[in-house]
Structure formats: C-alpha cells, structure tokens
TrEMBL record:
Highest taxon listed in the record's lineage: Bacteria
Record bears the keyword Transport: yes
Claim: Signal is one of the keywords in the record: yes
Family, per entry: Belongs to the leucine-binding protein family.
Residues of the signal peptide: 1-23
UniProt source species: Noviherbaspirillum aridicola
Name of the protein described by the UniProt record: Branched chain amino acid ABC transporter substrate-binding protein
SUPFAM superfamilies attached to this UniProt entry: Periplasmic binding protein-like I
InterPro entries linked to this entry: Leu-bd, Leu_Ile_Val-bd, Peripla_BP_I
Domain Leucine-binding protein residue range list: 28-371
Key words of the record: Amino-acid transport, Signal, Transport
Pfam families, A to Z: Peripla_BP_6 (PF13458)
Length: 380
C-alpha cells in the first residue's frame, strides 16, 4: 500500500519540478523576412537557412538571459521581394510581438518595412539591403551588417576604369530601390574616373525580354554593360547579349554575384566576362571560419551557400549577444547594447556607426571561370 501511494506522489513531484523549470524558460521570438517565393526565392531561402542555423545553435548551447534559460523561436515570413507584401509581413511580425527582426533581403522591401519596426520599437538588422536610404531615415532601430551601395557601386565604377580600362559604359537598372541605387553609385564612381556613360536603359525585376534595350546599347559599342538588379534577370540578359553578339564585360552588384548566376546564364557566361561585388568580405584571418560555416551549412541543408546566409547567421548571433549583454530580451533594454556591439562573427568584426551602418565594411570582387565564382580581391 505504501509503495503504490509513493509512485503517483513521485510523479507529481517530478511534474512540479518540470513545471517550475518550464516557467523559468523564456521564449524569444526572432522574425526573419525574405523572398521565399518568386524569381529570387533561392536567395530568400539561403537567408532563411542562415537564420535557422543560428537559432538551432543558440538553442543547442542553452543560452541564458537575465538568469533564465532561453528558447529561441524563428518566425519566418515571405515578402516575395514585393514592397507591399513586405510591409504586410512586417506588420504580422509586430502583431506576433517578436523581440527582433533579421531582414529583409531587398532594399525595396527593407526600407518601407523599417518604419513599421521603428514605430513598434523593434530592432531590425538587415543582412543584405544595401541602399543607403535604409540607414539615412534616422531610425535608431535599423542596422545592417554589410557595406552599402555607396561603397559597392563606387568601387565597381572605379574598377571598371582602373582595371578593365573601360572608356564607354552602358547602364541598365531594374527600377527597384536596390537596382537604381547601385547603378547610380556605379555611375558616380565611373564618371569620377572619366568614363563616358554612353547609354542608360531601364527594365523591371520580372522582365525576361531585353532585346530592345540591348539592341540600342549594342549600337553604342560599350566596353562594359553594368546591370543594377538581381541574378534572376541578369542570367537571361547575359544569354540575350550573347545572342546579339555584344562582347562587352558585364558588371553588377551583389544581386547578381551569386552561385546561381552560372546556371541562370548557362553557356552565355564566358570566363572572366563578369565582374561583380559582394557587399561584405572575409579577410585572410576569417577564411577558415567561413570554410567551416559553408561545410556545416551544406551538411545541414544539403545546399551550397548562395551569398548572404553567413551574414544572416551573424546578424542573429549579434542580436542574441546584445540581449545577453543587456540581461534582457526586451527591445527597449537590449537596443542600446546592440548599437554599441563589438562582435567577432563568421564574416568578420561587426560594429555599427551612429547611423546603423557597419563600420569598415568590406567588399569582395568576383569573376566567373568554368562556371564557378572566383574571388578577385577583398577591398575596403
């Protein structure tokens, strides 16, 4: 009789302890937004997987904040690279009372969404939006972990003149916040070096036929064609350039600088024909860490890193570190720690200036050989 009564009693005690432990565990919700549908879904999924990798590692470590064990949860939303869908996704995360947001991928979705997060007092770190306007709005909640278009486009413009010896350049942009921004900065950099902009054409981020604008450009005989836009458009554009016999070098920003470009362009991608820049860069000292990250990412997701997954991973880790330093996941309490963070990540050292831009942002220049992306240089 005594033994049979002890069994439920022991169970009740164990349950009570489990309940107490559960009560001590805090759930911290991190939002992530990127295009998981549409033409650049491969880039959005790459970013989301970077966030998932960080969340899983944090939970495996058993992080504590303010003396409480924390369980991180990822709330992932799809913005389809569309500004309206992006603001709807942002409001959904605000309504879900997330503690912070990583995203969005595109400048065109990041900029309008940033006001929603700012008004709600929720910190936002973009891992890939490069338009300078994002951090020029005066929002103390907005940060980015990559260089902006002023650095990226300007560097490419100077490279066209100094290294490619270009005299005449044609420029195409897709009319998005990102495409226009990087094209404008490229032109500034190129003009400052005496390069002649012989043509300026426009398309959109869903276009597939470029024959009219490319025919007009061909007549100008440019040394370089610069495209402000994403790889899903750049690939078909390269195919049509080849069909029209345009032998110019092809340049672009981080939007085209992906592993997927080779597949999208097919046999139209000649060796050393493309020069592009990633709005981030790993110095020699970080190479081993980045190689390990890529290997672990491949093992976990059975997919290669496209471009910005490591920056998303670092952004999540930076946000979690700020919470730990503040002993709180309350946005109002950890935001000051985020603003003054100094974090050594996979992608390098992360610290922000008073606008929320990364200090001493680096760029990596790439070309393609044999259908593979090949590094040219890491520059500041």
């Amino acid at each position: 009789m005594f033994k049979t009564k002890m069994i439920p009693l022991a169970g009740a005690i164990a349950f009570a302890f489990a309940g107490a432990a559960s009560a001590q565990e805090e759930v911290v919700r991190i939002g992530h937004v990127g295009p998981i549908s549409g033409a650049i879904a491969h880039l959005g999924k790459d970013n989301e997987n970077g966030a998932r990798m960080a969340i899983d590692e944090l939970n495996a470590k058993g992080v504590t904040i303010g003396g409480k064990k924390v369980k991180f949860e990822l709330l992932a939303e799809d913005d389809g690279a569309d500004p309206k869908q992006g603001t709807a996704a942002a409001q959904k995360l605000v309504d879900a009372k997330v503690h912070g947001v990583i995203g969005h991928l595109n400048s065109g979705t990041t900029i309008p969404a940033s006001k929603i997060y700012h008004d709600a007092g929720i910190p936002q770190i973009s891992p890939s939006a490069t338009n300078p306007k994002y951090t020029q709005q005066g929002f103390k909640s907005a940060f980015r972990v990559v260089a902006n278009d002023g650095q990226l486009g300007g560097t490419l413009g100077r490279y066209a003149a100094d290294q490619l010896k270009a005299k005449k350049v044609a420029v195409i942009d897709d009319r998005t916040a990102y495409g226009q921004g990087v094209a404008q900065e490229f032109m500034k950099g190129a003009k400052a070096k005496g390069v002649d902009i012989v043509a300026q054409q426009y398309t959109n981020d869903k276009a597939t036929d470029f024959n009219a604008i490319l025919t007009a450009i061909k007549a100008k005989q440019p040394d370089v064609v610069f495209f402000g836009g994403m790889d899903a458009v750049a690939g078909p554009m390269l195919r049509q350039m080849k069909a029209l016999g345009i032998n110019a070098k092809f340049m672009g920003g981080d939007g085209i600088c992906t592993e997927a470009l080779a597949k999208l362009a097919g046999d139209a991608l000649g060796d050393n024909q493309v020069v592009c820049a990633e709005a981030g860069g790993v110095q020699e000292a970080q190479k081993k860490g980045m190689e390990d990250f890529r290997a672990n990412f491949k093992k976990k997701f059975n997919a290669d890193v496209q471009i910005y997954a490591p920056y998303v991973y670092d952004a999540v880790m930076v946000m979690a570190t700020a919470m730990q330093k503040a002993n709180s996941s309350d946005p109002k309490k950890y935001l000051p720690e985020l603003a003054k963070i100094n974090y050594q990540g996979v992608t390098g050292n992360i610290a922000f200036d008073n606008k929320g831009d990364i200090k001493e942002g680096t760029l990596t220049l790439y070309t393609y050989k044999g259908g593979k992306r090949e590094q040219l240089a890491v520059v500041k």
